[in-house]
Amino acid sequence: MSATTSPPSTQPRNSRSRVILASLVGTTIEFYDFYVYATAAVLVFPHLFFPSDNETTALLASFATFGAAMLARPVGAIFFGHLGDRLGRKTTLVASLLTMGIATFAIGLLPTHSQIGVWAAVLLLIMRLAQGFALGGEWSGAALVATENAPAGKRAWYGTFPQLGAPIGFIIANMLFYLINHLLADPATPGQPSAAFLEWGWRIPFLFSAVMVVVGLWVRLKLVESHAFEQAKQSGGVKRMPIAEAFKFHWKGLILGTFAMLATYVLFYLMTSYTLTYGTRPTDADVPGAGYTYNAFILMLVFGVVFFGIFTLVSGPLADRFGRRKTLLVVTGAIVLFGLLFVPLLGGGSTPMVMFFLALGFTLMGLTFGPMGAFLPEMFPTNVRYTGSAVAYNVSSILGAALAPIVAVWLWGLADGSPLLVGLYLSGAGLITFVALLLSKETKHVDIDA
Fold first, then answer.
1. Residue 293 and residue 191 in contact, taking contact as beta carbons nearer than 8 Å
2. CA atoms of 232 and 72, how far apart (whole Å)
3. Closest Cα to residue 229, out of 80, 381, 23, 21?
4. Residue 78 is part of a domain; what is its CATH number?
5. Which end of the chain has fewer beta carbons closer than 10 Å to its terminal beta carbon, N or C?
6. Which range marks the domain in which residue 251 is found?
């Protein structure tokens, strides 16, 4: 039975607005929390938690904690995936959101290196691991809420709404940092974080997450479980150990899903963390950058992320019409070519060219990230769908996102400030993803209730 001919009994139990809001609000909060940390990893943490005489060393230490969260994500994927496939999507989504919110709020209260020494970095690492653990269970659950409740023939379109949380979370997090940095700016040090910002201003975005979590919990507590999961329970299809089932019978989907996401993750973190670092590094630094002030470059990034949001939504109808695999193959080929444009566009020194670079990169980001909301869940049956899609998505985060900022900074230094090797790194990741997609099957017509 194809997804386009499901009988009336399998029609969504949740209203369209409830599904869209519940899948969108949670990922917006989760990605907001993640971006708040990513921005602080560039602006704040090298100064307050990893002080060093060498600017690059401090930055690498800060990015190491940023990447450490990716190591915790597969653990969270297994834990929350088990809960999601055993107890249901709703309960698991509430638990992951609470975990993420508490960890982010706690970072806003941490003492710094000047107050407690190395323990400040240790506590920051622990909270960062908790963030990664929570995010390991968030995305898959939100994607399942969207796709398992989608009308016939519109699963990819509905699957873009949890993906849309990424650009929205980015804009909220970075605009909040921008406003705080602007209001606390010191005229004596234009373009640099002020003493007030470094002392207490940076904590506000972390503490503000508590308000957003309350809103997210209110929305998600109103959800009803999908027909797909309820049918699995009633038919005795729920497995005692979903992770064992996934590895034993669906290992190919785990492997292909992991590498299908690789280019998406590498592009994602190069376009956010690396470009922010490169764009705001002085042109006369030991490893030179573009020399923009933080406030100027963050507005440029927000401009680019608007394209991310628009083309995330555009990708859904394309994937529903032409298929997930075909759409992703075309976009991944474009990502490979985009990696060759890092030097003429990002490294060219022209503001219009940098703006075009950001718009193009984030457009590709939306087109590759959007279909994943349907593609990965559709690779697995209902009884291991949460676990399978979560493990594939989050193991890929180690190979892509955890390494991307660190590798990019290393390659950037190796090339004496040129982004050439960073672009080639993205092209290489794109080629790996292209092969994984070639080996994958089209999932457009799979029965989501199976």
1. yes
2. 29
3. 381
4. 1.20.1250.20
5. N
6. 13-439
Q: For residue range 148-195, list pLDDT tens digits in order.
A: 888 888 999 999 999 999 999 989 988 898 899 888 887 776 667 788
Domain count, the chain: 1
Written as six digits, the tokens of 334 are 């474009």
176's tokens: 């909040």
Exposed/middle/buried for 43, CB within 10 Å: 0-12, 13-18, 19+?
buried
Give the count of beta carbons closer than 10 Å to the beta carbon of residue 446.
18
Would you give the end-to-end CA distance of the chain in angstroms?
9
Task: State the Cα torsion 118-121-122-126 to the nearest 10°.
Answer: 170
| 1 within domain boundaries | no
Specify whether the CB–CB gap between 411 and 277 falls below 8 A. Answer: no
Q: Is residue 127 part of a domain?
A: yes
- Is the residue at 285 inside a domain? yes
**Model pLDDT for residues 47-105, shown as the tens digit of each residue:** 888 877 667 777 777 777 777 777 888 898 889 888 878 877 778 888 888 888 899 89
In a domain, 380, yes or no: yes
Q: Which residues contact 188 (CB under 8 A, 6 or more apart)?
A: none
Burial 157-195 (b: 16+ CB within 10 A, else e): bbbbbbbbbbbbbbbbbbebbbebbeebbeeeeeebbbe
Residue 190, Cα to own-chain centre: how many angstroms? 31
Give the whole-angstrom CA distance, residue 4 versus residue 371. 18
Tokens found for residue 394 = 């989050």
